[in-house]
UniProtKB/TrEMBL annotation:
Entry GO CC: cytoplasm
GO molecular function: pyrroline-5-carboxylate reductase activity
NCBIfam families according to UniProt: proC (TIGR00112)
InterPro entries reported for this sequence: 6-PGluconate_DH-like_C_sf, NAD(P)-bd_dom_sf, P5C_Rdtase_cat_N, P5CR_dimer, Pyrroline-COOH_reductase
HAMAP family: P5C_reductase
Alphabetized UniProt keyword annotations: Amino-acid biosynthesis, Cytoplasm, NADP, Oxidoreductase, Proline biosynthesis
Chemical reaction(s) catalysed: L-proline + NAD(+) = (S)-1-pyrroline-5-carboxylate + NADH + 2 H(+); L-proline + NADP(+) = (S)-1-pyrroline-5-carboxylate + NADPH + 2 H(+)
Entry keyword NADP: yes
Protein name: Pyrroline-5-carboxylate reductase
Length: 273
């Protein structure tokens, strides 16, 4: 979708919260044709450097009340979403698309005010356009607005829709928190390398680049499963096989990640109460 034809100065795209996540999405929108005059940024930290020609307000209250945004993106901390929704409530009769990327915010709390509400669970690689954006829409959201939401979220990475909001807790456990698991794996690989005789800087570089390279290889092998890629580099009786016998054993990755993702899923459920 050409964003230059979707938004205009009177029906702009409004971004509430211009931190790392919001800023990354905004850069993507501008690169995809969003005109600066059709973009409104709201953030108390000051005018964002990525959109100097856009309209900027320090608070929602400063935004002209005669504006009729076509879409509003809430990219603030979860504890700030409730207040933001209250301050934007006067827009409800204009039925804008409202998207929240705040963790743990239930769709019902958005849809109670805005019928066309979408909840998105992003992850931190979204800040560089490599995120996993998982979305669920309120029942009243039209197909056209779901398509617009997909186009907006695609600026930050891959987009996947789910029909059941209860899945979002497990989504949080797998992709929302997932980048931290990869960083922890990198740390553990480097630490193990040091134990087995490598200098710390050497072990750190080896672990880091191995993770980066493997991720790129998987990205560039879309028709191969992770299992197939693993098998491709595992020779029977070789060094990789010896390590995988441990990692895929009874106390290896499988059971460990099942417990870890279970803990993250339950915590997500608790935070939503």
């Amino acid at each position: 979708m050409d964003l230059s034809k979707t938004f205009d100065p009177q029906h702009p795209l409004v971004l509430v919260g211009c931190g790392r996540m919001g800023g990354a999405m905004a850069r993507g929108w501008l690169e995809r044709g969003l005109a600066p005059e059709a973009f409104v940024a709201i953030d108390p930290a000051g005018e964002p450097d990525f959109a100097p020609d856009a309209r900027h307000f320090s608070s929602i209250d400063e935004m002209p009340r005669d504006l009729a945004p076509a879409a509003v993106i809430l990219a603030v901390k979860p504890y700030m979403v409730g207040e933001a929704v209250e301050q934007l409530a006067h827009l409800a009769e204009k039925d804008p698309l409202v998207i929240s990327v705040a963790a743990g915010i239930q769709l019902a709390s958005l849809a109670a005010v805005f019928e066309s509400s979408v909840r998105v669970m992003p992850n931190t690689p979204a800040a560089i356009g490599k995120g996993m954006m998982v979305a669920v829409a309120a029942n009243a959201v039209s197909q056209a607005k779901k398509s617009l939401a997909s186009d907006l979220m695609a600026a930050a990475g891959d987009v996947l829709w789910v029909d059941d909001e209860s899945m979002m807790d497990a989504v949080t456990g797998v992709s929302g928190s997932g980048p931290a698991y990869i960083f922890a794996l990198t740390e553990a690989m480097a630490a193990a390398g040091v134990v087995h005789g490598l200098p710390h800087d050497v072990a750190s570089q080896l672990a880091r680049q191995t993770i980066i390279g493997a991720a790129h290889l998987m990205e560039q092998s879309p028709h191969m499963t992770a299992s197939e890629l693993r098998e491709q580099v595992t020779s029977p009786g070789g060094t990789t096989a010896a390590a995988l016998d441990i990692l895929r054993g009874e106390e290896g990755f499988g059971p460990l990640l099942e417990k870890a993702i279970g803990a993250a899923t339950r915590r997500s459920q608790d935070l939503a109460k």
